[in-house]
Design goal:
Layout: H1 2-19, H2 40-60, H3 64-78, H4 86-117, H5 123-141, H6 144-154, H7 165-204, H8 212-226, H9 229-239
Helix pairs in contact: 3-4, 3-7, 4-5, 5-7, 6-7, 7-8
C-alpha cells in the first residue's frame, strides 16, 4: 500500500513538473494483458513479502525442521556443545534440505516458473501449481492423525486434494516435530548407556568426586567415529523422507 501511494505521488509530481515546462520522467506501472493476472505493483509487494518470510518458509515448509533438530540432538548426546558449531549445524541442515527438496523445486520450476515467464499462465495459476507441489510433499510426511486433529479444530472436512494450506502446514510441522524427537531419542540411547556405565564404574571405584562426563566424553566420540556416525546419520535423515 505504501509503495502504491509513493508511485502515485511520483506520477503526480511528474505531471506538475510537466506543467511548468521542466524535464519530466514518466513512470507507468500497469498490469498484464490478461485481466486475471496481478498487476506489477502488486507482484512487487508480494515478492518483497516473500523475501521477508523466506526464512520461515524454508524452515517450516521443507525438511529443514527435522534436520536441524536431529543434528542438535546429536551434538547434545555426545556432550560437546561447541563442536560442531551452530553455523555448521545450520549449514549442514540447509544443504541437506536443498538436496531433498531439489526434485520438488525442479517440478515447480518446470511447471510453474517457466510457463509464467513465457506468459503461458497467469501469476495466480503459477502460485496454485507451486502450492500444489509443496502440499504434495508435505502431505507425504504428515500423519493422518495430525491432519484430522487440525481439521477438527477448524470444524471442516475434506479429501487431501481439497485441504487448504492453513490445515496442511501446521499438520506438517507437528508431524515433523514428532518424527525429529523420535529420531533424537533413538540417538540419545547409546550415548546415555555409556554415561550410565561410566558413572557406575566410577562409583564402584569410590571416585565419586570425578565428573562422569569427563571420562565418558572420549568414549562417546570414539563410538561415534568407529560406527561412522555422520554417514549413518545423514543417510537415515535422507531416507526418512518420502518423495
Amino acid at each position: 500500500m505504501i509503495l502504491l501511494l509513493f508511485l502515485q505521488g511520483l506520477a503526480h509530481g511528474n505531471q506538475s513538473a510537466a506543467t511548468v515546462g521542466n524535464p519530466t520522467l514518466n513512470l507507468n506501472i500497469t498490469g498484464g494483458e490478461n485481466p486475471e493476472d496481478l498487476g506489477i505493483a502488486i507482484q512487487l509487494v508480494i515478492f518483497m513479502t516473500l523475501l521477508t518470510l523466506a526464512p520461515s518458509i524454508i524452515m517450516l515448509m521443507t525438511s529443514f525442521t527435522r534436520m536441524v533438530i536431529v543434528l542438535g540432538f546429536v551434538r547434545s548426546a555426545i556432550g560437546i556443545q561447541s563442536a560442531p558449531s551452530n553455523q555448521i549445524v545450520i549449514g549442514l541442515a540447509l544443504f541437506l534440505t536443498f538436496f531433498i527438496m531439489t526434485p520438488v523445486w525442479e517440478k515447480v520450476y518446470e511447471k510453474a516458473l517457466v510457463p509464467y515467464m513465457d506468459k503461458e499462465i497467469t501469476s495466480k495459476q503459477a502460485l496454485s501449481v507451486t502450492g500444489g507441489y509443496m502440499k504434495t510433499f508435505m502431505l507425504k510426511q504428515t500423519r493422518e492423525k495430525d491432519i484430522e486433529f487440525f481439521l477438527g479444530l477448524a470444524g471442516s472436512s475434506g479429501s487431501q486434494e481439497e485441504l487448504p494450506m492453513r490445515i496442511v502446514i501446521p499438520s506438517f510441522i507437528l508431524s515433523e516435530l514428532r518424527t525429529a524427537f523420535q529420531m533424537g531419542f533413538m540417538i540419545f540411547v547409546p550415548f546415555l548407556i555409556i554415561d550410565f556405565l561410566v558413572a557406575s564404574t566410577l562409583m564402584s571405584m569410590g571416585m565419586m568426586m570425578m565428573p562422569p562426563a569427563i571420562i565418558s566424553l572420549p568414549f562417546k566420540v570414539l563410538l561415534f567415529v568407529l560406527v561412522d556416525g555422520w554417514y549413518l546419520l545423514v543417510r537415515s535423515l535422507v531416507e526418512s523422507f518420502s518423495l
